[in-house]
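Holo model, zinc ion. Inputs:
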Amino acid sequence: MATIQREKIYECEVKRYIKKPSGARSPFWKIKNVAEAVADEDKEYRCKDCHGKVKLFRKHVANGPASHVEHADKQDSEYCAGGMYFLQATDGRTPRLAADPVV
Ligand SMILES: [Zn+2]
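Output:
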Protein backbone atom coordinates (compact mmCIF):
# COMPACT_ATOMS: atom_id res chain seq x y z
CA MET A 1 0.00 0.00 0.00
CA ALA A 2 1.40 3.38 -0.95
CA THR A 3 1.91 5.79 1.86
CA ILE A 4 0.18 9.08 1.47
CA GLN A 5 2.73 11.77 1.03
CA ARG A 6 2.16 14.78 3.18
CA GLU A 7 3.79 18.10 2.88
CA LYS A 8 6.00 19.01 5.82
CA ILE A 9 7.40 22.50 6.03
CA TYR A 10 9.45 23.22 9.11
CA GLU A 11 9.93 26.95 8.60
CA CYS A 12 7.17 29.49 8.34
CA GLU A 13 6.55 33.16 8.82
CA VAL A 14 4.82 34.47 11.93
CA LYS A 15 3.20 37.84 12.37
CA ARG A 16 4.88 40.16 14.80
CA TYR A 17 4.28 43.77 15.72
CA ILE A 18 6.76 46.55 16.16
CA LYS A 19 5.82 49.61 18.14
CA LYS A 20 6.48 52.84 16.31
CA PRO A 21 7.57 56.02 18.12
CA SER A 22 4.03 57.30 17.56
CA GLY A 23 2.74 54.37 19.61
CA ALA A 24 1.14 52.70 16.61
CA ARG A 25 1.71 48.98 16.17
CA SER A 26 3.08 48.03 12.82
CA PRO A 27 2.90 44.38 11.73
CA PHE A 28 5.70 42.53 10.03
CA TRP A 29 6.42 38.89 9.16
CA LYS A 30 9.34 37.04 10.62
CA ILE A 31 10.77 33.71 9.41
CA LYS A 32 10.80 31.21 12.18
CA ASN A 33 11.17 27.52 12.89
CA VAL A 34 7.65 26.09 13.31
CA ALA A 35 8.50 24.25 16.55
CA GLU A 36 9.80 27.52 18.03
CA ALA A 37 6.72 29.39 16.87
CA VAL A 38 4.51 26.80 18.60
CA ALA A 39 6.60 27.07 21.78
CA ASP A 40 6.30 30.86 21.63
CA GLU A 41 2.53 30.58 21.05
CA ASP A 42 2.57 32.56 17.85
CA LYS A 43 -0.94 32.87 16.50
CA GLU A 44 -0.62 33.90 12.88
CA TYR A 45 1.28 31.82 10.38
CA ARG A 46 1.85 31.88 6.67
CA CYS A 47 4.10 30.21 4.12
CA LYS A 48 7.51 31.91 3.99
CA ASP A 49 7.80 31.38 0.23
CA CYS A 50 4.36 32.08 -1.27
CA HIS A 51 2.73 33.83 1.72
CA GLY A 52 -0.23 31.47 1.41
CA LYS A 53 -2.39 30.09 4.19
CA VAL A 54 -0.96 27.11 6.03
CA LYS A 55 -2.30 24.48 8.38
CA LEU A 56 -0.37 23.93 11.57
CA PHE A 57 0.46 20.44 12.82
CA ARG A 58 1.79 20.37 16.34
CA LYS A 59 4.05 17.59 17.47
CA HIS A 60 1.87 15.22 19.50
CA VAL A 61 3.98 12.18 20.22
CA ALA A 62 7.62 11.93 21.21
CA ASN A 63 8.67 9.98 18.13
CA GLY A 64 6.27 11.68 15.73
CA PRO A 65 7.16 14.36 13.21
CA ALA A 66 8.23 17.73 14.56
CA SER A 67 5.70 20.53 14.48
CA HIS A 68 5.27 21.69 10.91
CA VAL A 69 2.92 23.40 8.51
CA GLU A 70 1.49 22.45 5.17
CA HIS A 71 -0.26 24.59 2.57
CA ALA A 72 -3.96 24.93 3.29
CA ASP A 73 -4.59 25.19 -0.43
CA LYS A 74 -3.08 22.59 -2.74
CA GLN A 75 -2.95 25.18 -5.52
CA ASP A 76 -0.52 27.26 -3.47
CA SER A 77 1.73 24.24 -3.05
CA GLU A 78 1.69 23.65 -6.78
CA TYR A 79 3.24 27.06 -7.43
CA CYS A 80 5.19 27.75 -4.24
CA ALA A 81 8.99 27.60 -4.38
CA GLY A 82 8.92 25.46 -1.22
CA GLY A 83 5.78 23.51 -2.07
CA MET A 84 5.83 19.74 -2.27
CA TYR A 85 3.78 19.68 -5.48
CA PHE A 86 5.89 22.41 -7.03
CA LEU A 87 9.08 20.50 -6.24
CA GLN A 88 7.56 17.35 -7.77
CA ALA A 89 6.43 19.12 -10.92
CA THR A 90 8.49 18.37 -14.00
CA ASP A 91 7.03 20.92 -16.38
CA GLY A 92 9.52 23.69 -15.60
CA ARG A 93 6.89 25.93 -14.04
CA THR A 94 7.94 29.05 -12.20
CA PRO A 95 6.93 29.75 -8.61
CA ARG A 96 4.57 32.58 -7.75
CA LEU A 97 2.92 34.07 -4.72
CA ALA A 98 -0.31 32.61 -3.39
CA ALA A 99 -3.53 33.65 -5.12
CA ASP A 100 -4.92 34.72 -1.76
CA PRO A 101 -1.90 35.61 0.37
CA VAL A 102 -2.09 36.16 4.12
CA VAL A 103 -1.29 39.79 4.83
ZN1 LIG B 1 4.06 28.36 0.00
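The beta strands are 11-19, 25-33, 45-46, 54-57, 68-71. The radius of gyration is 15 Å.
Archived with the compound record.
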